[in-house]
Amino acid sequence: SRDYSAPVNFISAGLKKSAAEDVSEEDSDEDEKPVKQEEIPKEFVPKKLKTGGNFKPSQKGFVGGTKSFVDFGSWERHTKGIGQKLLQKMGYVPGRGLGKNAQGIINPIEAKQRKGKGAVGAYGSERTSQSLQDFPVVDSEEEAEEEFQKELSQWRKDPNGGKKKPKYSYKTVEELKAKGRISKQLSAPQKELSQVKVIDMTGREQKVYYSYSQISHKHNIPDDSPQQPLGKDSKPQGFALPELEHNLQLLIDITEQEIIQSDRQLQYERDMVVNLTHEIQKMSEVLSHEETAISNLSKVLEMVEECERRMQPSCENPLTLDECAKIFETLQDKYYEEYRMSDRVDLAVAIVYPLMKDYFKSWDPLKDCTYGTEIIAKWKSLLENDDLLSHSGQDLSTDAFHRLMWEIWMPYVRNIVAQWQPRNCGSMVDFLDSWVNVIPVWILDNILDQLIFPKLQKEVESWNPLTDTVPIHSWIHPWLPLMQARLEPLYSPIRNKLANALQKWHPSDSSAKLILQPWKDVFTPGSWEAFMVKNIVPKLGMCLNELIINPHQQHMDAFYWVIDWEGMISVSSLVGLLEKHFFPKWLQVLCSWLSNSPNYEEITKWYLGWKSMFSDQVLAHPSIKDKFNEALDIMNRAVSSSVGGYMQPGARENIAYLTHTERRKDFQYEAMQERREAENMAQRGIGMAASSVPMNFKDLIQTKAEEHNIVFMPVIGKRHEGKQLYTFGRIVIYIDRGVVFVQGEKTWVPTSLQSLIDMAK
């Protein structure tokens, strides 16, 4: 019989080879047979190297030699190299390993001759003791291969002829569970490998497998061997039972799958228990919340039913508005969520509205304007919808408080306004002032626009400023804080009526000023100025025309009547009146007086007396300054021209001193005003910064020069009476104690800053 315990030749993966390849493989098999040293042909014997040594397989250091490599680098003696010397310089000790810690190998990797012609690994591990020691890392694929070969070798015959007992491997349940988890993760790639067709031709017959895993279940058991008769000393041979083995293996596989499936089911049930535990906790929380909500709603329902019971006419202890407010406060404080979610509008209509009607049934708003404000303010915080306030709307169907005020409180207001007289505005204004922070804004607007304003408009139409003893501002102006711009339509008819009343008015009648003065800040600046220019300024001009200037007997009544309107009309209008109707006559009187050998001391007093009649604001105006400066120039010319005639002693000096003093006052006042204005601008952050505010008169002149693009610079090497000369545009000036002096034809003349700017332009 043939020996089937020989090594496996090959396992083909289904690739069919040609006849030529088969022949070449047979030749290669013959070539792979071990050849003895004596049989090697002479021409293939290794020749002597150029170094003089022989390269023989039996020598030390040959790959396949059995002895250790002791004389490391001994071949160097046949060369001219210095490798051994370099190694020793780097710390190499002969006989020890390479590297810093002598961990490197010095022997070449030994080769191991394979016994038969099987594939790599068919005869077990081919690693030597040296290689295992040098490279201890073992790959997982090699371990699996070793395990497979170990299981496969159980069914091979012993080469010595004896029988070998199979070794069984056992797995615990934990190992099987772990294997099941790993196989579950690697099921996808293994599924692809399981579909490979494998042809096994290692036996007598060709066998076909449909996966590599089926090879592990194949056992090399002798089949179809002739039965030998049993002798006396012979032992019975084993029987091959493939069906039984298949069934047993199937049972084992089924059991393993059941164990793995049971483990997965157990894990799933455990996860389900955890999830259900969390669900139970959540449902318990929801249940407790629902129970709390049910309990709160039950208590709220009891309180509402108690309110309804006490509102019955037959109840001995009827419910009051204050007690009802306390009940709603309790609902809002203790049961806030239920209170906000409930329909407060229906609840208030059913409970609060009847109580509110009974509370205000005997109320007179004009007599007791603060009645009910505190209780209504409390109900506002209880019933008003915050969302409605954020949108500034008026939806009576969603806000209980607005509906309460509109349906219960508003009818009382309509009745009282219908009976109210607009000229008695004090009580109505006080009433609305008391309720302005309590009632909704849109209800207040409705009262002012639909109830109050029509009454005021009708009363203004019937007002006559000539016959009515009560001034109109006394019953219109109290409404300004509440109505503000709503009163604008009333101003036009008021101005028309006042203009008609002023047609026959004379400035001597001071009652017109008393009537018009309260309206100055009410009318817009443009409308007020237009009214003054049209109705007042012409009357004042006529009054100034009638003024007679007589230095010896002056009547000042007409002048006082005009000056008295200074705060009412604008400064420009007043200056225009003076320039047109006063100063021409005044300068003419001055010239005629100076031409008749006057007393210059009286003229000085007369000049100063008239100047004192004007306010600083009027005197600061450039036109008024020019007129008074013109009077000074006339007096200076009169003094200078009277050379041959008689003149009072010291008159010329007095007039010059007067001129110098008055102009200096004007300049100082102007500088002070400019400085004050600059400081105010700096404080408000408008214009120049606080650091650039002029600190003296020179800085002020420089600032004005910069504003008007005028060159202001000192004249080098030029002085007058020790004072530095400056060029201001085309004019030469100098500054002395806050006064600017301009170079004239014969002398230096003081001038104002504005006049200086006009001359420089």
TrEMBL record:
Coiled coil: none annotated. InterPro entries: G_patch_dom, GCFC_dom, TFP11/STIP/Ntr1. Residues 15-60, 113-144, 215-238 are annotated as: Disordered. GO terms for cellular component: U2-type post-mRNA release spliceosomal complex. Residues 79-125 form the G-patch domain. One of its GO terms (molecular function) is nucleic acid binding. Residues 22-32 have a biased composition (Acidic residues). It comes from the Eukaryota. Residues 33-46 have a biased composition (Basic and acidic residues). Belongs to the TFP11/STIP family. This is TFP11 protein.
